[in-house]
Amino acid sequence: MDIGGTEIKIGLFDGEGNLLEKWSIPTDRTDGGCRILADAAASLLAKMRERGLGSSDVIGVGVGVPGVVLPDGTVERAVNLGWGRLDAAGELTELLDGIPAFIGNDANAAALGEAWKGAGKGRRSLVLVTLGTGLGAGVIIDGKMITGAHGVGGEIGHMRVRDDEKEPCTCGGYGCSQQICSATGLVREAERLLSAEPEAESVLRTFGSSLTARDIADAAKEGDRIAEKTMDIMTRYLGRTLALTAMVVDPEVFILGGGVSAAGSYLTERTEKYYKEYSPISEYRADVVTARLGNDAGIYGAAAMAGGFGNGRTILGK
Amino acid sequence: MDIGGTEIKIGLFDGEGNLLEKWSIPTDRTDGGCRILADAAASLLAKMRERGLGSSDVIGVGVGVPGVVLPDGTVERAVNLGWGRLDAAGELTELLDGIPAFIGNDANAAALGEAWKGAGKGRRSLVLVTLGTGLGAGVIIDGKMITGAHGVGGEIGHMRVRDDEKEPCTCGGYGCSQQICSATGLVREAERLLSAEPEAESVLRTFGSSLTARDIADAAKEGDRIAEKTMDIMTRYLGRTLALTAMVVDPEVFILGGGVSAAGSYLTERTEKYYKEYSPISEYRADVVTARLGNDAGIYGAAAMAGGFGNGRTILGK
């Protein structure tokens, strides 16, 4: 399962990691998100009945959650779901008649998925950077997930990279990389540029308040100057964020995922240029590629966790 | 062995990691440092003869080198020794009649030492930050050294943290953390402040061109305003560097070593304040403590490597 702020994606996998079926249900965030796990469990149990599967036929259930998850599987906080501290693994196992449940951060789950079956296949060390509403990352080094001693491993979306930022990030800080390097950030940067240059012609003006990151990337590829400038700002800060990250863990490859990664080589080439500019220390650098599993990375990673891999344990070299 | 730019420290350890004897010889950097390994080998062989030890009595020799070391033990480059690419392990083993030699980056060796017998004893995850001529770091997560896919793991001294820097760092970049957070950086910051405020009284002026980081730390503790301001700038950027690092690997503890760490709690308290300011994402953070082994951390870590531990393998939990 991959629990997001709007929907819960669920996938049924066999023991080799083949996706047999996937579906999704809406996320009910009302009342502090207290019905989310029950809804997810009910949907899964219905699917099991439909396929004639009993509890003993299921090895386990992995769940990616958008928030801080402690090493024991307790959720510390998941703001977008309305959750405070919650023993999600214990509660879900109870709802599922004893089927073992494994909880992990959603960005980590996606990294596990890409490492197992996606763009990181065959690599020992990688960082998946998910450019969605925010910037999330999953760090796998020497075949092991780094979740951190306080659950903030891979929170590179909150690295301070811009000193003159006046608006606060959701974390309370200022100038966090995700304020620029995300779908939300791209739209905000474009709107700032459009306001700063009211006379400048740009196709972006035609979208009004429905402007999306996709519109900006498409317009940039068509040569729209404001859109190009927006992408240049975003890739500069993303390159800087990758350089900072590389100076700590130096992975083989950075994999860019999330909606913004649809921009493909336009995104990776510019990001690599700035990554290089911000890390002259070595002439050798990690590759920068786009993710392969798209929105399914989370459920692949959750399946890897359920198979007894994730949560800080290795899924590589198996 | 801990090979530095001015001297080579050598220690003789027993199998439990007890230091039996230590000594040092000067580093001969002339002619591209081509005599360094031969000098070190000759000194070690003389000590073995003195103690009646044969080659078969020695498990191995570990060596910390100030430069980029690839996973196979080849030195990629060690600027301060005058070395380019060098098979240091192979050459040393030959000079030592077949005694196995293990080469690692000196900052990583020091981190192994502190993890094994120093301030990191009993911790599974730590980052040793050595504040000397530059800023070096060794990263140990879940009991394993992270050296990186391109030998730049832990090069946090080259994180870009200051945007308005006009002088280049040794790496060719601008605004690297080690340009401020190091013994050299402290002196440079103090000199800048003294020039910027020519009328300001400060005890630091009495030192002239012989001003050291120690003088600055001592004067700051005595309330000298310029010295206090220098320490404030340095700890701000150091705190920022720790915050950036924590957002990737989130260790249990940061251990501050090197000459500057003699400032003790004056240093750690101010650094923690800024580390907190730059990482509002979580209320839980790594501890910040000073190193315990002082200048011996490198030879302890080298001994750990020789025992078959380091070079990316675990020394913790043993």
Automatic annotation (TrEMBL), chains A, B:
Protein name according to UniProt: Glucokinase
MF (Gene Ontology): ATP binding; glucokinase activity
Membership in a protein family: Belongs to the ROK (NagC/XylR) family.
EC number: 2.7.1.2
Keyword Kinase: yes
Any GO BP annotation: glycolytic process
Gene3D superfamilies hit by this protein: 3.30.420.40
GO annotations of cellular component type: cytoplasm
Domain of life of the native organism: Bacteria
Keywords attached to this entry: ATP-binding, Kinase, Nucleotide-binding, Transferase
Entries under InterPro entries matching the protein: ATPase_NBD, ROK, ROK_cs, ROK_glcA
Keyword Transferase in record: yes
